[in-house]
TrEMBL record:
Signal sequence annotation: 1-29
Cell location: Cell membrane
Organism superkingdom: Eukaryota
Ranges for domain Immunoglobulin V-set: 34-110
Membrane-traversing stretches: 140-161
Keyword entries, A-Z: Cell membrane, Disulfide bond, Glycoprotein, Immunity, Membrane, Signal, Transmembrane, Transmembrane helix
Identification of the protein by name: Ig-like domain-containing protein
Pfam families documented for this protein: V-set
SMART domains xrefs: IG, IGv
CDD domains registered for this protein in UniProt: IgV (cd00099)
PANTHER family listed in its UniProt record: T CELL RECEPTOR ALPHA VARIABLE 4 (PTHR19433:SF111), T-CELL RECEPTOR ALPHA CHAIN V REGION-RELATED (PTHR19433)
């Protein structure tokens, strides 16, 4: 991608004397989807306008061309999966059923003495769905992590409270019999109490 960016900048610098403005964009599309590339129509006279593509080789290839015979209305031409439309100010390139082979540097413009005169350049990158899932923004991952930590802490606290309640209930069950046994040990049979009373009276 760095090579495409560098090439786009060099093209802009080279065509600066031929055009009044040079723009560079970057677009990401999904396989099987549809994407629309746009560039400004800087031609001041009716000419042939082209969409070029630069992939692996050094030479750009023409994808689709259109003759600008007039400056009113909307012109449109379709070639396979590519549809080129234009109006007074902009050029568009619609790509249907996007494939990985569509990745590359696209630019629109005219030809002057056989050399491309570029208006605008767009780097198209076709990304797989798996890449989009793995490249989740850091704030989202942080929020999910915090929620999981809070949930685990709350769950552990709830388990600790329930366990604590069971332990207290068991302590009460164990303490109750010991209390009754202790109270019963202080009681004496009625015959024994009467005998003690008789002995105490006799000594007096």
């Amino acid at each position: 991608m760095m090579n495409f960016n560098l090439f786009g900048v060099l093209l802009c610098m080279f065509s600066w004397t031929l055009t009044s403005l040079c723009q560079f964009h970057s677009v990401v599309a999904q396989p099987g989807g549809e994407v629309t590339l746009r560039c400004s129509n800087l031609s001041r006279v009716p000419v042939f306008l082209h969409w070029f593509k630069l992939a692996d080789g050094p030479n750009p290839t023409v994808i689709v061309s259109m003759s600008m015979s007039g400056w009113s209305g909307l012109n449109k031409i379709q070639l396979g999966r590519f549809t080129m439309t234009s109006n007074i100010t902009d050029l568009f390139l619609d790509i249907r059923s996007v494939d990985f082979s569509d990745t590359g540097l696209y630019f629109c413009g005219t030809r002057t003495a056989g050399n491309p005169e570029m208006f605008s350049a767009t780097h198209l990158k076709v990304d797989d769905v798996c890449d989009e899932v793995t490249n989740v923004p850091t704030p989202i991952l942080s929020a999910v992590t915090i929620c999981l930590v809070i949930f685990i802490i709350c769950l552990a606290a709830k388990i600790w409270i329930l366990q604590r309640g069971i332990d207290i209930s068991d302590d009460l069950h164990y303490a109750a019999p010991s209390f009754h046994v202790k109270a019963g040990s202080n009681r004496k049979p009625a015959a024994e109490r009467e005998l003690e009373t008789t002995v105490y009276a006799a000594t007096r």
